[in-house]
Design a protein that fits this description.
Blueprint (H helix, E strand, L loop, with lengths): L5 H13 L18 H8 L7 H11 L10 H5 L2 H4 L9 E3 L4 E3 L1 H12 L10 H12 L15 H12 L9 H5 L6 E2 L2 E2 L10 E3 L4 E3 L1 H11 L10 H13 L9 E3 L1
Helix pairs in contact: 3-7, 6-7, 8-11
Length: 258
């Protein structure tokens, strides 16, 4: 195995050692827990996990110097394997300067435009997903720890309301599938419990990696509702609520799903 793969392999071993199964008495199950063993093996093995292609690109972008001052992410944050450890498990967070919640992708964009003075990356672009994948890898095997910040309370409440709101021509809510029918099948696919432990995720269906917002957008299209704009407050609210529901669960990003 190439020497550069060693840190990734180490993270995989940490993940395997920590295990994805929840503690006794905790009925929550991640998407990883509910996958077939063959897909779990694909995710665990960094040699077969397709998301590692984005991780490697993200690692390269981390040191790429941009903007008039030729600054890279590494110039401010140093070694991501140290400074970004656990960072993805703590988003969305409240941005004091902007006085509003911000998700991980938004924070990367903020650094890129306000610190590097570089051209912003579009939501769901390969570059942004690559950087988010590289940063998220540094939280693999760690518990999701939403910020204990009262300024996020209203956002989480908004997310809970959206999760339970029926919408679209099919008049379905997130809860109707992921709470009331989790573990059942819809169109031949298993319905998970909606715990965002593995994002960004490589989906075999997409043949691509995508953010949690992309997944939420797909669900809205599935119930024939009008999706929110990318990066909208509604998506960040849903993300904040889902991360709160998953507090304490181990992150397995970047994950693989069917």
């Amino acid at each position: 195995m190439h020497r550069a793969q060693a840190p990734i392999l180490f993270a995989a071993l940490v993940l395997a050692g920590a295990g994805f199964a929840q503690q006794a008495g905790d009925s929550r199950r991640s998407g990883y827990d509910m996958m077939q063993p063959s897909l779990q093996e694909m995710e665990r093995d960094d040699g077969t996990n397709p998301a590692m292609l984005w991780v490697r690109e993200g690692k390269s972008l981390w040191s790429q110097k941009l903007g008039p001052d030729a600054k890279s992410c590494a110039d401010c944050h140093g070694d991501a394997t140290q400074t970004m450890r656990g960072a993805a498990a703590r988003y969305p967070a409240f941005d004091a300067a902007a006085q509003k919640p911000i998700d991980l992708a938004g924070r990367i964009q903020q650094c890129r435009t306000e610190r590097q003075h570089a051209t912003p990356l579009a939501r769901e672009s390969r570059g942004l997903n690559a950087l988010a994948s590289y940063v998220s890898l540094q939280s693999r095997g760690l518990a999701i720890t939403p910020p204990q910040d009262a300024r996020l309370d209203a956002t989480r409440a908004q997310g809970a309301a959206l999760f339970n709101a029926r919408m679209g021509q099919l008049n379905l809510s997130c809860a109707a599938c992921h709470d009331a029918n989790a573990g059942q099948k819809l169109g031949g696919s298993l319905i998970p419990q909606a715990h965002p432990t593995g994002y960004p995720i490589y989906r075999l269906e997409w043949q691509d990696i995508g953010s949690l917002q992309r997944r939420l957008r797909n669900c809205m299209i599935g119930v024939r509702a009008e999706p929110f704009p990318s990066g909208s407050a509604e998506y960040i609210a849903l993300e904040a609520y889902l991360m709160q529901r998953a507090a304490g669960m181990a992150m397995d990003a970047p994950g693989v799903r069917p």
